[in-house]
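=== RUN LOG ===
request id: a7f3
mode: sequence -> structure
chains: 1
length: 324
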Amino acid sequence: MLLIKQAPDIKSSEITDKKLFSERRRFLRTAAATGAGLASSALWLPASVQAGEKLSGVRKSTYKIDDKLTSYDYITSYNNFYEFGTDKSSPAKFAKKMKTRPWTVVVEGEVNKPGTYDIDDFIKPHALEERIYRLRCVEAWSMIVPWVGFPLADVIKRLEPNSRAKYVQFVTLYDPEQMPGQKRGLFGGGLDWPYREGLRIDEAMNPLTLFVVGLYGEVLPNQNGAPLRLVVPWKYGFKSIKSIVKMRFVEKQPATTWNMAGSSEYGFYSNVNPNVDHPRWSQKSERRIGEDSWFTPKRKTLMFNGYADQVAHLYTGMDLKKHF
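=== RESULT ===
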């Protein structure tokens, strides 16, 4: 049975700080104008999966926090997914028609098992687990999300990158007919498509890094990055690339979309860091989506989004203000 949930009636500027929201939209307008641009298969549903369907065999994990979960309605209606438009409500409106089957993931580069993998074959070897993570957007808002997925490290081990693989790059689907934000104009923010992101291999292999196929125990909705997305909880949300169609293992640091659009504003690492402000707004605090009103005090942002014990060692000796 498909459970249809109604999204709350909210506007994109009602929760994100209005000044911050306007600043990021202004940046996009300027950029566009200048041209910147192997477990049981029963754990996974067959090719007819739809958002809202329950995922079977999902186990609870020790990766959880005590904070109150953000509601399903907020998580699925307040999104940044510029392939469908820059308003927070655009993904929920325009992603519904995107087809997530058939779907393939291409693996290439410095790896022993390259190839084109059917999405269900790609997922089947992995047991699904629920992990409750903080999600911190670069726009200074946050959520608490119960993701369903499997460790990226398990995938990488299965694909066997060679010793030359120092980074892994991820690429989102490019299909302007299904993703209207990829068409020319400002509807998609004038970014250089397809969307690309990347991690160092040690970041990708960290136990926290997750490939996600669902949330709240259900199949991942299109607007949240179906059928396969990345979640890197200690980094700003734009690092957690959605609707992945390619993994590329490379020797040199790969190009990433927001870094190409504005390298002084969006670094390659983009670790959550309250001590390094965005050039146009503070990162010292954040607004939790779904919490009361504008009069609710903001929360203090935690170093590495609260995951310092698990990831700080990855950056030992690095100047985090320089390598932001």
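=== NOTES ===
The domain at 18-315 is CATH 3.90.420.10 (Sulfite Oxidase; Chain A, domain 2).
DSSP finds eight helices and 13 strands in the chain.
=== END ===
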